[in-house]
Amino acid sequence: MAVELDVFVGNTTIMDEEVYQLWLDGYTVNDAVKARMDAGVLEECEADADVLLSDTMDQYRTFQMCERLLQSPAKLANQLLFQITPHRQVMLIERYYAFDDTFVREVLGKKLSKGTKKDLDDISAKTGVTLKSCRRQFDNFKRVFKVVEELKGPLVENIRQHFLLSDKLARDYAAIVFFANNRFETGKKKLQYLTFQDFALCAGQLINNWTVGAVDNMVEDMDVDLDKEFLQELKELKILIADKDLLDQHKSLVCTALRGKTKAFAEMEANFKNLSRGLVNIATKLTNTKDVRDFFIDLVEKFIEPCRSDRWTAADIKLYLTHYTNSAHILDPFKHQAVWDRYMGVIKSCIFIMYHD
Amino acid sequence: MPGKLKAKIVAGRHLPVMDRASDLTDAFVEVKFGNTTFKTDVFPKSLNPQWNSEWFKFEVDDEDLQDEPLQITVLDHDTYSANDAIGKVYIDIDPLLCTEAASVISGWFPIYDTIHGIRGEINVLVKVELFNDLNRFRQSSCGVKFFCTTSIPRGYRAAMVHGFLEELVVNEDPEYQWIDRIRTPRASNEARQRLISLMSGELQRKIGLKVLEMGGNAVVGYLQCFDLEGESGLVVRAIGTACTLEKLTSGSLASAHTHPNTAPASNACNSPSKDGKEPVFGEDLPSSSGPPTPFRALPTSSSSPPPFSPCKPCSRQSSSSDTDLSLTPKTGMGSGGSAGKEAGPLKTLLRQQTQTALEQREFPFFTLTSFPPGFLVHVGGVVSARSVKLLDRIHNPDEPETRDAWWEEIRQEIKSHAKALGCHAVVGYSENTSICEEVCILSASGTAAILNHRYMREGCLDIGSTDQRFEDPSPPSCGFCHIPYDELNMPFPAQLTYCYNCRRQKVPDVLFTTIDLPAEAAVTGKGCLIQARLCRLKKKAQGEVNATVISNLLPFMEYELHTQLMNKLKLRSMNALFGLHIQISVGENMLLGLASATGVYLTALPAPGGIQIAGKTTGDMSNEQHILTIQKRINDTIARNKELYQINPPELTEEGVGSPIPEPRHRSRLFRSHSESSDEVSELDLSHGKKDAFVLEIDDTDAVEDIHSLLTDASPPAGFHSCNTETMPGIYNWTTAVQMFTSVRVLRLSNANLSNQSLNKIFTDLCENLLKSFYFKLRSMVPCCLCHLNFNVAVPEEELIQVSVTAVAMTFDKDQTQERPAERFITKGGSETDEQLQFSLELCADSSSTNSQPSSRISGTVSLFTPAAKLCQSQLVVVHSTGVPENTIVSSRAASVDYGSFADRCSTWLELLRLKAHTIRRGSVKTSRRTQSLAHSVSSLEHCSPLTEGRSRSVRSSRSFGGSPVTMVKMTPLSFLPGTRNIKYLGIINMFFIRETTSLREEGGVSGFLHSFIAEVFAMVRAHVAALGGNAVVSYSMKDCVLMENPNKNQAQCLINVSGDAVIYVRETDQEPTASMTNMGQSLCAADGAT
User: Fold this and answer.
1) Which of B200, B261, B720, B960 could form a disulfide with B716 if both were Cys (CB 3.0 to 4.6 A apart)?
2) What percentage of residues in chain B have a pLDDT greater than 90?
3) What percent of chain B has pLDDT over 70?
4) CA nearest to B259, candidates B889, B892, B828
5) Sign of dihedral through CA atoms A274, A277, A280, A286?
């Protein structure tokens, strides 16, 4: 006695959110049935394992048929095959494009290529996210990347419109695209302590301030590529460390302002030159793609680690960086105020985000 | 009468990639109707082409308009090789031919390919201009409205119910033609789809002609079926009920709800005695001890008095110019003024008349399952007939006489069964077939009944209110249960008691019917789905031998199904079955029988006794013990069910009621017989002889199994109810959430050596598990009821059992269920009296300006009456209207004069049509050739249709463009959506699709294949409804789902046929401005909707 065929089709497509999540998480039908049983679905209504299996199969089939539409969410709204209420559609899309932070952390900044896809089983083993789910998430990244690559206009807005995602999710995708495009190194051991959300926030800062889009909002790739002109201008900041007088003047201004306001004053004074050199060097090297990739690792090595070893508090960092930035304005011979602000604004925010007590 | 069909191709979207190199498509469209084809330009390199074509115009005969679908083919242009087809859309333009239905078809249609399924969508605009004035148009067969709904569609009233319609057309199946060996599967499928589309168009047109011949304007309960007879051909057949429907306008709305038997007060005072003696007339008929036997066809009944009162003056028929099929007696009747005096003789005369009226018809059958109040007088019981036939090749498709004769034979049998039950009509009538290789079982079933004659005659209904007091005196809540046959001369042994409701007439102990529970019926507690399931193995055989084996098995199957039904009914402590549908399916090595019905406890019928188990051998202690435990289980189950279904009949002091000790009773409401090819007719008495029906004897293991299986039927989980009728008795407060679904399950019997018993168990489990699955899937809708559960079984091939189910889950408000019923009856009664009053008054006021003053004064103050005052008021008014019969005559005469002239024109026109019909012959698909000449002859008429511009302006092409979200289209197998009103019927949806695959594994196996196909069918139905401007399909049904698979070859093929009525509904709360003045009518609609 074998069930040869078993289907159930509703005029309004029936989708159980729980099963949908299991499907998204890459559970096999049998695992999903087991998970549902463990969740106690059988107790709440009189049913047996066969019923559960049949239901799960049906739903899995439905999801599989829907998947094609979910990959271009705009189609879901005006396709005719499945009758799904609008709020249900929103849920389906949002969940389909949702991702695991642990997974995305692994591929963040990597090239979204076949090569990376081959490594997915390792990532799956490492993160505990099923391979199926890894593939879906990876393909989502790739798909979004491919679509927005060719579009003009603001990145987040493009993602939101093309994939009908919530603002939050669209921002996360923008970060992923941005990281993938610039190939930022995030996998080094020293960066392991940072979460995806840390990077996403940094990406937001970079997108809003350092890209072409920050000045001109109708260019292709405007939010994806860093503003080349700006990067060139950053070279001018070298004077802050190259000119010894300027460096000393800067230091005394900062120290005057900080004196008595923090316990870490002594360390700040002692480290000023080192730290300043570190930050300015990062700025001047950003014209090299290689150094752009190392942006975060440089920030950690050149600034965050020394501060941490001196046990600065987050408040100390904030105080220091504020005065460090502002004091540069008072430096007479320093003419690059605009570039300095644009640079330090992002650096400051990124360091705040990345500095975990 | 020709017309101009215009089509415009606007745009496409989501097209598939046809050119791998560019990942794009160069699409163009061919638009074909009949033999004319137009093409759009190629829209290069786009998956979302914007053709925005000109209007393609087809000048065609209306016959073709009815028969042919508009065929739209989307292709990919290829410069070097043949163009590749992307897919097709067939659009049935029939809804455009009826003035009251849709005026334009405009919307996105899925582009369908029989191999690939849906491949993108296309936006199309279609219009029809008919070159004739409205009157002429109405006379053509195109004007006839079709409804799948098996009741009078909401928003209409039946001015007259004419009767049974049947037609069939046959053709060779393209799948079995020699050419099929050389053409592609796609070409073959498309040929088949097209042929069936043509055949059903033709069938519909022919049925339409018959309706016009009868003088009707609509077909209600239209049921079309396909018989895929394989080598021997393809039969498309249809049955339906011809009616004259009138659309309810604000004025007529009130009158439509005026029904004769809803004035209990006047009934009670006017006719304290039974049998419809009217003290009003001061008649002195001898009272009879027997029950009434109205229209009794059996000669034995002649002694009882005619219960039907004369219909007074209104029975006069002025439409003598009607067509020959008119059922109206042409005798002129005495004028109304003398009604009182002439009552006696008139009565006899009238009775003869109505009797002959019904007998004039070849078959007094009605495919309706629910009726306007008062239509159904008595119900006799289920009548069914089956016949086993051997299929032979239809040599000449133009002469399908054999098929006709087969059905004729069966219908005669049904008719004679109904007669034996003392009934003159059969309601809830349906026909179906089961085919396996060359053997075919034809089945027909219905419910024998006595109908109110008023609906059979024209004109009468309009002044029916004066009629009502003379009608059957039984209260509407139990009248239909009263036996129609003669107590002393019963057609079968049955236990009769006096009606527990009115105490005046006799009722049987159980009642089986195929109809829906009448809305006015008094029911105790709730109902539930009851199924009897049965498998019977048979030896494989060929030809005659096979047919004989099957026909020998049939009576036993019917007997067992009946026994199962009866036992399960008792187990639930219920006494009546509604919506009974018995399906017997034949396979190569087995027969499957499935009987589904909704069990209820009718208050009018006696309480069923328990079930007693008896052992054969006494003295054996262990056996005795065993029997005792079973008996206890049964008693427990009964007690539990009583609680579950809230069956607490009012305690009656009479002895014997509710007694746990079964009295000897007999069961048989089911009259059946079967005949073989040899015409041998055998009748089977299912009354179990003189044996006690309640005692189940355990004499062997089989019996034990039977009893166990009886107890295995699980009741629905908490919060769920199920029934196979339109709605559930006992639930009235529906909310608006509905979920229609189709589910199919196929089981492979791996074990070759199965016994009947184990097979039964497998089949029962299959059905039970399906139900369990539904409950689980729909658990979020609780509290809810699965309505119209329609099970369909088939044996697609050896060792396979297929069950397909279509049903709708509807939610209801739980809190109110407990209190509502009682309250409902009061309010409903109140509102109906209200209605009646309104009507009577209107009648008086309308009838003549010379009418007596009081009535008009009353009409002025009516709205001020309190409900309590209304009752007596209505009585008063009724007296008034009888007092002034002349006035009513005036109005009816005026109406019929008009009709007469119409009929005159009609008959000449009909002759013309009939002539045509003869030249075409049934089954011929060659008619399209004649189109040309006719189309030419009328082209000169082209200019004279100023209508065109006005119509085209109404088309909002803006709505057709993409971006806008898809309209949600609700679907339901019921005739209504709860909490809504159907404000417009847009036409019938009747679609046939074939899907085939050669990559079964890739599509997810058979389940994946069928799942997407069913989803596609739903999508196409919804798209068509939306294009007609509708937002729902009511009376939806999936009539066929034929699946053939060959997993080894990675192939599968499936055929699906669906139908329904496209409607526009509005929520009850959204009042339409035009209808707002008819508040009363609406409130009644609401009440209807809730029942």
Assistant:
1) B720
2) 26
3) 62
4) B828
5) negative
B437 burial type by CB count under 10 A (0-12 exposed, 13-18 middle, 19+ buried): middle
Considering only CA atoms, which of B834, B824, B732 is closest in space to residue B785? Answer: B732
Torsion of CA B1007, B1008, B1009, B1010, to 10 degrees: 50
Mutation for testing the A interface, residue in B766, B780, B969, B1011 having most A CBs under 10 Å: B1011
Sequence-separated (6 or more) residues with CB below 8 Å from residue B841: B855, B858, B859, B862, B877
> Which pTM does this prediction carry?
0.78
State how far Cα B215 lies from the chain centre.
21
Average pLDDT, chain B: 70
Q: Tell me how far apart the alpha carbons of residues A124 and A118 are, in angstroms, rounded to a whole number.
A: 11
User: Where does the pLDDT of residue B650 fall: very low under 50, low under 70, confident under 90, or very high at 90 and above?
Assistant: low
Residue B52 has pLDDT above 60, yes or no: yes
In this structure, what token pair is assigned to residue B88?
Answer: 């097709």
Tens-digit pLDDT profile for residues A305-326: 988 888 888 888 888 888 888 8
List chain B residues with CB under 8 Å of A54. 769, 773
CA distances from B576 to B284, B376, B383, B422, B516 (A): 37, 17, 15, 19, 11
Interface of B with A in 790-819 (CB under 8 A): 800, 802
Query: So what's the pLDDT on residue B907?
Result: 37
Contact, B221 vs B149, CB < 8 A?
A: yes
What is the percent of chain A with per-residue pLDDT over 70, rounded to a whole number?
Answer: 97
- Dist CA B313 CA B333 (whole Å): 7
Q: By three-state DSSP, how is residue B142 classified?
A: helix
Q: Label the pairing between strands B218-228 and B145-146.
A: parallel
Tell me what the mean pLDDT of segment B641-657 comes to.
66
pLDDT, tens only, B882-927:
233 333 333 333 333 333 333 333 333 333 333 333 333 333 333 3
Domain ranges of chain A: 17-84, 101-210, 228-354
CB contact under 8 A, B773 and A51: yes
CA–CA separation, B171 and B1002 (whole Å): 35
The pair of three-digit structure tokens given for residue B61, joined into one six-digit string: 């005969």
Query: Nearest C-alpha of chain B: how many angstroms from A62?
Result: 8
* Residue A262: C-alpha distances to residues A208, A270, A311, B512, B974 (Å): 32, 14, 12, 94, 79
Q: Output b/e per residue, B891-915; b: 16+ Cβ within 10 A.
A: bbeebbeebbebbeebbebbeebee
DSSP 8-state secondary structure symbol assigned to residue A286 = T
Mean pLDDT (whole number) for A330-349 = 85
More confident residue, A291 or B272: A291
Binary contact (A79, B14; C-beta < 8 A): yes
Give me B671's structure tokens.
């009259």
| ipTM exceeding cut-off 0.90 for this assembly | no
Please give the Cα distance from B940 to B679 (Å, whole number).
Answer: 56
* Radius of gyration in angstroms for the set of CA atoms belonging to chain B, rounded to a whole number: 30
Q: Given an 8 Å threshold on Cβ–Cβ distance, is B746 in contact with A54?
A: no
Residue with token string 């110019």: B321
Rg (CA), chain A: 25
| pLDDT tens string A163-174 | 999 999 999 999
The neighbouring-strand residues paired with B145 are: B218
Least confident of A240-244, A332-336, B471-475: B471-475
pLDDT bucket at A223, cuts 50 / 70 / 90 = confident
Q: How would you list the strands of the sheet with B576-586, edge to edge?
A: B511-512, B576-586, B590-602, B523-537
Pick the CATH number of A228-354 from 1.25.10, 1.10.405, 1.10.220, 1.10.490: 1.10.490
Region A118-123: mean pLDDT is 88
